[in-house]
What does this fold into?
Amino acid sequence: MQFTSKLPNTGTTIFTIMSALAAEHKAINLSQGFPNFPTDPHLNELVYQYMKEGYNQYAPMAGVPALREILSHKIHQLFDFKPDPTTEITVTAGAAQGLFTAIAAFVHPGDEVIILEPAYDLYRPAIEVFGGIPVAYELKAPRYAVDWDEFAGLITPKTRMILINTPHNPTGSILRKADLEKLEALTADTNIIVLSDEVYEHLIYEGEEHQSVLRFPQLRERSLAVYSFGKTFHATGWRIGYCVGPAALMAEFRKIHQFNVFSVNTPMQYALAKYLEDENTYLNLSSFFEKKRDFFLSTMRGSRLQPLHCDGTYFHLFDYSSISQEPDTAFARRLTTEFGVAAIPVSVFYSDGRDDKIIRLCFAKTEEMLEEAGALLQKV
Ligand code: PMP
Ligand code: GLN
It folds into this structure.
């Protein structure tokens, strides 16, 4: 049979490749980003309770009202803006589906979408499958900051969307208030949509505040912000998140969403609605993960892998250039097969393959696992 691939240059995602390699070699898997500790038993109980009570049929297309209402309240508390739960919030099957649906809804063939590279690997294929043209702004080690004057040079009459991600995967950098203000000024009086990937909103350190697009009145009029319960509640396998945006954009988003997943699993939505009533469930996450980051770094002290900086996310970058000059893909593979710790090479997130000899390690793990990994990495 013959067919023309829509994504001729896309292979299997690095997360699948490295997790499979880790399993094959029984390596500690610090590659793909997921916690190895359990979800809160109370949250699990709530899911089971709603299942037993019979909440097992289709949820409303946009999400269970109680969940959208508590999310509206949460956003109001955090970002001083109260989205209308009826028209401005949609529950999605993970942030991935939210991002993909937003791109599907607004990117036409020939439209340009500016992304920050190194970029999470979903963005580029999602843009390309709808005929869009990804335009990369290259963030550079070690700080991975945006120079907004340089960034402005990428905007053309064809720019349909700007896709940002803060806290940023894979670099662990964050956008600050001044960054968002620059973005707000740059996009004022344009038809550019901002798609803001904020899945690590609660994983931000040193007392920094997460700068959501939703905090900025002009910016939020043109923005869709995407979140993930998988990241927030250690449940990446549940595939549930949400998208927030102004009613007109959200109506368009839902046109796609209704025929893509229709709606998201019902008992988990009810359980999350109840669970979110206690704001400590998410407000304590930063200190929880900051401790893990610091513990992991303490186990790495003395290693020849040089830590970069991590302001957010549960990823830490390490420079291995004092150990080897081999490509980062080869080094990550060798770390897995010879030293027993799986890592992600950062070059795969750059479209030009830029290789700064840097790998990403995930520290969303128990102290036991981090200690064991640290000991193995000391030997490299
Ligand atoms: N965006 C970023 C930056 C991510 O790291 C991930 C993966 N966790 C996602 C989106 C997708 O999130 P989810 O698992 O909720 O689909
Ligand atoms: N976001 C996760 C990471 O960066 C992976 C998600 C996935 O495998 N789809 O590691």
